[in-house]
Amino acid sequence: MSAAKQSDEKLKPVWRAAEIIAKRLDISVKVTDNVIEMLEEGATIPFIARYRKEKTKGLEVDKLREISAGSEELKVVENKIATVHQAIKKTGKLSKDLVESLKHAQSLDEVDTLFAPFKPGHKGTLAERARKLGLEPMALKILDGRSVDLSTLVNKNEKSLKTVGDVEKGIQHIIADIIAKDKGAIQQARNICSSNKVILECHKCKNTTKAASVEKKVVDSKKKDDSYKYEQYYDYKIPVHYLKPHQILAINRGEDKKVITVKIVIPEFIKNQFISFCQRKWCRGRDNTYIENSIEDAYDRLIVPQTCRSIRSELTKKAEEASIKVFADNLKSLLLQPTVKGKSVLGIDPGFSNGCKSAVISPTGQILATVVLYLHDHRSNKSKEKDKLIDTVIKHRCEVIAIGNGVGCRETEKIVSDLIQSKHFKPLEVYYSIVDESGASIYSVSPEAQKELTDLDPTLRGAVSISRRLQDPLAELVKIEPKHIGVGMYQHDIAEGKLKISLDSVVEECVSFVGVDLNTGSECLLRRIAGLSSAKAKKIIEWRDKNNRFINRQQLLSVKGLGQKSFEQCAGFVRILNTDNNSNSANKADSDIKTEVKPASRKRKTTTASTSKTKKQKMEADLEPNPLDMTPIHPESYHIATSFIADVGEDINHIGQQDFIQNIKSFLNKHDVSDLTETYSTGLPTLVLITEALTKTKSYDIREGNQKPLFKQGITGIEDLKIDSILTGRVTNVTHFGAFVDVGVGNDALIHSSKMCTSKGRQTLHLGDRVQVRVLNIEAARKRISVALVDIL
Hints:
The protein is α+β, with helices and mostly antiparallel strands.
């Protein structure tokens, strides 16, 4: 290899990303390698989770996301190592020890620490200054155990070398630098970080000057003082190992606001362990004052500050990851709430002087009527406004009223509840539900809303969104940026980029796993399907508008800009529903589309006449409907599904019918699926997916088994509650310290994490869960209710 080529070679770390991630997540390196390889090839997480279980050993989506995030993070570290290596090399100060330290660095903090002395404008470390004075050869002799005479280096004309003490100090700095950059010492520092004996201490900040006090008063006059929120951390000590994510983020926030000071305290015995390790390595059993002093200097001046920064950085990183996970879990539970089918819904966006904006939505999501009800305005005729509400409900036969949980919710709920109780909606049996309206106002003025609800006043669009959120949460909430949906906590303390990537991934997962009808799905839904994008979703809509409808999944390959890779990723997640394969109407639609598609195919670029003919023949073949397109079975497995159905003795055109399902189940009762894998030359996960898909009805929805929204007819106030009362409610938010539950009194109750045990043991709650709770404490003035979990219903 030439010298020029060698100098340009990118420095590679000694570690492999798959091995580090596998250790962190406690999974096999082989599986991690497989996942990283598929991600690099362009596979999406939903596709890997559903259709590549043989390679992932059935890893859950959350684990796949962690592997993806870990891989991206370590790529950044690897690139930073290479960049820093080249930058230091150009200064001519690159040493063998520094190269080794860079190779072993596993985080950006470690790389930045190594690079800091070489940044432009930096005066250089004490060790660098000592090296410039020519002290390094003597320092290396001392490390080799040779005897030295430091007086020979004394130079009265050099400020830093005037005495033997000055020379000794310079040599000590060089040796300390060598020790601090040693890979063994670095590993010892990492061991310190993982020790559960390291303590975090917090104390209240003290304003020591009059100026500081004056400044605080000015700030307080402009902004509400919220320092009371951090009182629990004014004199606080805890092993870092026991810190909860919400505590870490709160402590960081308090420190940023100058309310508290924070420091990491490392026990003395850890220092002794580090010194003993270094003495064994460099003193080799001999007494050497120079080295012993350098070891202590390396620890106090270099290792401890770097380790404390690493500990704080790692704590913040883990807290952010945990908070993002809670946010993502809550979002997933919200998106996967069951639909409310077959009912007209009156959505009410409560308000006072501006009225309650209301919209009636049909069972299919169409707007039937809009009205503004001045139920709380003292200037209005409230009796007349209530009559308008009653007439609207009866006229459109609304069995469900969805009330937004914003300002005026409680007052509106009371009016609706009173009307229900007094039978004003007879003969209808009317229920109401409180719907989280987070993001509805943002949606109402968004380009998406303007495009979808062009002729509707923006103030009424929120009511439409509230109604549709109850009818089909997933289809409506995909129109809103996930961070605005309001199901997390501490999102303002988390890096926005990280949060967006994670939440977008959750939305993609939910939309993909639920599936989207290719002929009715909105652009908002289609662009969230794995393998698709906004541009590709628009092209699909355009193709659908031009050609009337899709007959089968294979026709996606006819959509401009949607290639084989995109088709592979999205095909299993889109559906062709309501296709009657045996009807004349299907054949007519088939012929109609042929007349539309043929001219389009002729416009395509072709290299030869035979290629054009092949494409034309392929298009003709693609126009046949395929009943498997109604299922989550991927086209790559159609040959297996077809063979299996034939072996059962069933007709593929009967997929989804009760007799078909019963025959499939009977066949499976007689044959173990694992015994059939060799017959069909496929893995067990793929065969299980196929057989499960064939035992579902056409209308099956994975959301059906989840907790339904809480429907109510009556209202209770916080003043009506009593200690030890048993209440039923729905989980509205989950955090690290507990879960909030709507118990129907206008204010959510808190189940602290320590109160989540039932007779069945400790429980894990998810957003949307129906629960039974016991009232522990009521603070009516502060509107706080503490409850304990009794059971999950």
